[in-house]
Amino acid sequence: MGGVRELAVPFVVPGPCGVAIRDRLKHLTPQDEKVLRTVGEHQGALASGDLKARCADGLEHSAQTWASRKRELTGVSSSRIAGAITKATHDQWALARRCQAAHLQSLTAGIRTLRHRLSLPIGEPGTKRAAGGYRSRGEWFRKSRRLAALEARHAAAVAEFQAGRVRVVRGGRRLLNTRHHLTQARLTEDQWRERWEAERWFLAADGESGKRFGNETIRVTPDGEVSIRLPAPLAHLANARHGRYTLTATVAFAHRGAEWADRITANRAVAYRIHLDTDRGRWYLTASWQRPAVKTIPLEAARARGMIGVDTNADHFAAYRLDRHGNPIGNPHRFPYDLSGTSGHRDAQIRHALTRLINWAKSVGVAAIGIENLDFTTEKTREKHGRRKRFRQLISGIPTGRLKARLVSMAAEHGLSIVAVDPAYTSRWGAQHWQKPLATPHRKMSRHDAAGIAIGRRALGHPVRRRTAPPPHDRSDRAGHRTVQAGPGDRGREGTRPPATDRPPGGPSPSGTRKREPSASNTVRDAPSTQQWVQDSLMHTG
Questions:
Q1: What are the respective helix, strand and coil percentages of the chain, to the nearest 5?
Q2: For residue 152, what is the enclosing H or E element?
Q3: Residue 239: strand, helix, or coil
Q4: SS (H, E, C) 281-293
Q5: Are 304 and 260 in contact (CB under 8 A)?
Q6: Residue pair 450/431 in contact by the 8 Å Cβ criterion
Q7: d(CA 489, CA 487)
Q8: Are 216 and 208 in contact (CB under 8 A)?
Q9: What is the Cα–Cα distance from 207 to 268, expressed in whole angstroms?
Q10: Helix/strand/coil (H, E, C) string of 199-215?
Q11: Residue 414: what pLDDT?
Q12: Can you spell out the DSSP letters for 302-314?
């Protein structure tokens, strides 16, 4: 295909496998906060020690070492708390291991790009698929030094990966680095210390099916009463039976409250986490549980009622509705958002834009939304794009991972499916085949709107191109119809053009839509003549 890479097959994205809801713990007494802080500090210290032991084991970890660590924690807490701590430790170590592998992949890509560009003559122009040589000998020399630095970092990272050595910071490496930049963060040392300690607390418990209300360590009754099973050294703080402490605050989950109540009434597992927002001085309780794996609908069923193609951009979603034959319907829709500011503001902007997109999809009656399977992991490298800092910031600012997770979970709640397609050439081919034909004085088509059509057609299984080549003969009866058109069984496929409504010459139609004006024909059939062989032009219109 002239150098065009092979496109991946579209697929229906699996639905979400878990649910998390949150509510605020209001009206806590000073004694309640004291107990929560004490328990969090005690269990946080145990979690830090367990993580240190797990990192020291490295690749030598086994079921025996896991059992040994759990026995040691059980004596200073309880069996359930020890199990929750060790499980959280293993998850954190596995996450650090995956991040280490991704870092190695990034270093390898940078080294490959540098070696390629250094091997080219100075000033060699690049192509769309590969960067060219460096502009000057000075830049070539600096990049050769950077190559040496990356190779040294890569060798050290490979040695750590093979030895199973990971680097983990309980509380977060970013918050740890903030300690050295308190002025820029507008924090005092006491404020930073409070935030650091709160992030290192451990107030969480995994759910247990068959136990009362689905959790024995942190128990929440259907009335919203919250109680905590205290560790053995803190049993003297209990205010209820069996070493439990009951908080004065109650919770009432406004979102998914009925689903949560059904689970705890049936004694099904629900995990809980208590954390403190130091900026606001508020305590929160988060409940989460797993959902059974739901089989996704077949791809053909998702395509049955058409598709909405969505092009993801740095500041908006460009969406276009298509019928099941791939024909655009109506006008393009844009759902803007602002990704500047704090992470909470960015997350809220993404949620609001997705909510408007999903509401529109439900109103038009489609069953699926087509979106690109974006992953900019290999596109952010400094070595690949060089001086194009604004482009690197652009692609780095698009939250592809969070966007996909949000869209899948929100669409599943409204009965919509998500079809992921290969993102290759969607903007280029969409602009080539759809931007100009659909642009009118009353409809402004952007490159992103045309890309939405390309994405939707690819999700429907159609090529991006509007029409295929005509039949090789003069009549379609000999070679068949074009490959991209409605099937023989579709109603209306042979329908005539609807008649134009009555309107004054040159004026707009009553419905406000633009109608094509009749034009004078230059053929011999319409020439004024008195000959009998000239046929009436009205017999050949339509």
A1: 45, 15, 40
A2: helix 137-163
A3: coil
A4: CEEEEEEEEECCC
A5: no
A6: yes
A7: 5
A8: yes
A9: 8
A10: HHCCCEECCCCCCHHHC
A11: 87
A12: HHTT-EEEEEE-S
Distance separating alpha carbons of residues 347 and 406, to the nearest angstrom:
9
Separation of alpha carbons 423 and 398, rounded Å: 15
Contact 471, 480 (CB under 8 A): yes
Distances (CA, A) of 368 to 122, 245, 307, 440: 50, 48, 6, 28
pLDDT digits (tens, 9 = 90+) for 132-184: 888 899 999 999 999 999 999 999 999 999 999 999 999 999 999 999 999 99
Locate 254 and state its tokens.
């406004």
d(CA 59, CA 52): 14
Q: Report CA 37 to chain centroid distance, whole Å.
A: 35
- The amino acid at 372: E
Residue 388 binned pLDDT confidence (cut-offs 50, 70, 90): low
Q: What are phi and psi of 440, to 5 degrees?
A: -135, 170
Local structure of residue 135 (DSSP, 8 states): S
Displacement of CA 518 from its chain's centroid (Å) = 50
Q: In the prediction, which pLDDT does 490 show?
A: 58
Give per-residue pLDDT as tens, 389-414: 665 555 555 666 677 778 888 888 88
Contact present, 418 and 371 (Cβ < 8 Å): yes
Check whether 523 has a pLDDT greater than 50. Answer: no
d(CA 158, CA 103): 10
> Angle at Cα 32 formed by Cα 31 and Cα 33, nearest 5°?
90
- Distance (Å, whole) CA 109 – CA 375: 15
pLDDT for 296 equals 72
On whether the pTM is more than 0.70, the answer is yes
* Dihedral over Cα of 425, 428, 433, 434: its sign: positive
In angstroms, the CA 476 to CA 478 distance is 5
Place of tokens 């308190």: 182
The residues, ordered by sequence, that sit 6+ positions from 225 with a Cβ below 8 Å of its Cβ are 246, 247, 250
Token pair listed for 325: 């034959």
The per-residue pLDDT for 385 is 57
